[in-house]
Amino acid sequence: MKGLKDMKKSRVLLKLTLTTIIALSVTGTAIQESKPELIESYGDAKVSSVLRLDEHVRIFCDIVELPPVIGQNIPVCINGLKPADNAKDNLKLLMFLNDLLLSKNSEPKEIVLKDIRRGERFCLIADIEVDGQDLCDLLIEKKLAEKVIEVAPSKKTDSTPAANEGGYIATKSSKVYHRATCSHAKRMDAAKAVTFSSRQDAEKTGRRPCKTCKP
């Protein structure tokens, strides 16, 4: 009799254990599904040497601090930049970049890739700084290219904290938050932007501060 009771008790415990496991699995899945998907950022890296440019305005370079499989002859697209669709229309842009990045007659430049992300076809996307200046802003200033996106003021965003200098802003898919006055924030799509009234509010979402504007 005692053996039978022990068997029944074991079965009950087994059922409870299985029920708990299933419940936790379902709950975990629900939490995971409700969590917004963020684009992975791989931080910053210093370019060791620029090798060449191509007609799509991709900058091929070596990055010693990265593994060779992604650090040698790797193409990098300039984040926020909209080049022309063909090499002919990009000629002035490519000539300028060639003189800036590849000319043997000029002083070596310090080139840093910031907020690196993965693009399509084994290409990196990054904000590129040349001697501390944002390359995208420089090219736009010289009217050699256009911004991919503009943050246009609207009735919905004018009253948000990021509409003034004291606010903080990020895109819904990014792990980085910025000051509203940051050069990267100026290239955000207003429809995809989220704002925060404080650093603490931004960091509660798992985001880290921008290394350019240092909010």
Q: Please, could you describe this protein's structure?
A:
Strands 1, 2, 3, 4, 6, 7 and 8 form a seven-stranded mixed β-sheet that branches. Strands 12-10-11-13 form a four-stranded mixed β-sheet. A two-stranded antiparallel ribbon has the order 5-9. A hairpin with a 4-residue loop joins strand 10 and strand 11 (176-179). Helix content is 31%, strand content 24%. By secondary structure, the protein is of the alpha+beta class. It has two domains: 45-147, Beta Barrel (OB fold (Dihydrolipoamide Acetyltransferase, E2P)), CATH 2.40.50.90; 155-209, DNA Methylphosphotriester Repair Domain, CATH 3.40.10. It has helices at residues 2-34, 68-71, 91-102, 135-141, 155-158, 199-204; strands at 45-46, 49-53, 59-62, 74-78, 81-82, 111-118, 124-130, 133-134, 146-147, 168-171, 176-179, 193-196, 208-209. The longest helix has 33 residues, at 2-34.
